[in-house]
Design a protein that fits this description.
The protein has helices at 2-24, 75-90, 163-186; strands at 28-29, 45-49, 52-53, 61-62, 68-71, 93-97, 107-120, 125-138, 141-155. By secondary structure, the chain is of the alpha/beta class. The chain starts with a helix and ends with a helix. Residues 1-25 have low confidence and may be disordered.
C-alpha cells in the first residue's frame, strides 16, 4: 500500500513544480512589431548591420507586485529587423548582416539599443520606453547619427492587447522619426 501512495504524491508534486515554473515565466514577453506608414520614399541599397544591445540591464522592468518583466526575444535583433522591414516598406533594397563586411561605397546603417523598459504603472496600465542610437555611413564617413527615444503608456486588455503591443508602439515612434532621416541620408 505504501508503494501506491508514493506515486500520486510524486505526481502531484511534479505537477505543482511544472505549474510553478509556468507561472514564473508569466512576466516574460515575446517582442513583436507591425509596420507603420511613414510616406517616405526611399531608393537604393542599404545594409543594416545587427544592432548592439547596450542596455544597462537585461530585465525590462517591474510589475506593481515588484516582479521582474523580461523578454523572450533578442532585443537587438528585434530593433534591427524592424528597421529592415520599415526600409523595405519605404522602397529601399535593404540587406541584413550580422558582421561588418561592406564595400566602402555601400550605405550602412548601424545602431545600439540604449534603453528598452516596460513597467506596470497601474492595475492594467504599462509604460514602455525605447531609446536607440542610429548611425548612417558610407565609406567610413558618417552621414547621419542621432539618438531616438519614444515612450508609450497604455492599457493592456487581456485578449485584445498585450504588454508587447506597448513596446511595439514605442518602437514605431522611433521608426516614424528615423526612417525619413535615413532616407534623406541615403539620397546624399
Amino acid at each position: 500500500m505504501k508503494t501506491y501512495m508514493k506515486w500520486p504524491l510524486l505526481s502531484a508534486l511534479g505537477l505543482a513544480l511544472i505549474l510553478a515554473a509556468g507561472c514564473a515565466a508569466g512576466n516574460a514577453i515575446k517582442l513583436k512589431y507591425a509596420l507603420i506608414s511613414t510616406d517616405t520614399p526611399c531608393a537604393g541599397e542599404i545594409t543594416v548591420f545587427r544592432f548592439e544591445d547596450k542596455r544597462p540591464a537585461s530585465a525590462l522592468g517591474k510589475t506593481t507586485d515588484n516582479e521582474t518583466i523580461t523578454s523572450l526575444s533578442d532585443v537587438a535583433e528585434w530593433v534591427g529587423w524592424a528597421l529592415f522591414d520599415e526600409l523595405e516598406s519605404a522602397g529601399c533594397k535593404p540587406k541584413y548582416r550580422t558582421a561588418i563586411t561592406a564595400p566602402d561605397d555601400e550605405l550602412v546603417v548601424t545602431g545600439q539599443v540604449l534603453d528598452l523598459t516596460l513597467n506596470q504603472t497601474g492595475v492594467t496600465t504599462y509604460k514602455g520606453r525605447v531609446s536607440v542610437r542610429i548611425e548612417v555611413s558610407r565609406g567610413g564617413t558618417t552621414l547621419h547619427a542621432e539618438k531616438y527615444t519614444s515612450e508609450v503608456e497604455d492599457v493592456v486588455v487581456p485578449g485584445y492587447s498585450s504588454e508587447a503591443d506597448i513596446l511595439a508602439e514605442a518602437l514605431r515612434g522611433v521608426m516614424y522619426e528615423a526612417i525619413p532621416a535615413i532616407a534623406e541620408a541615403a539620397g546624399k
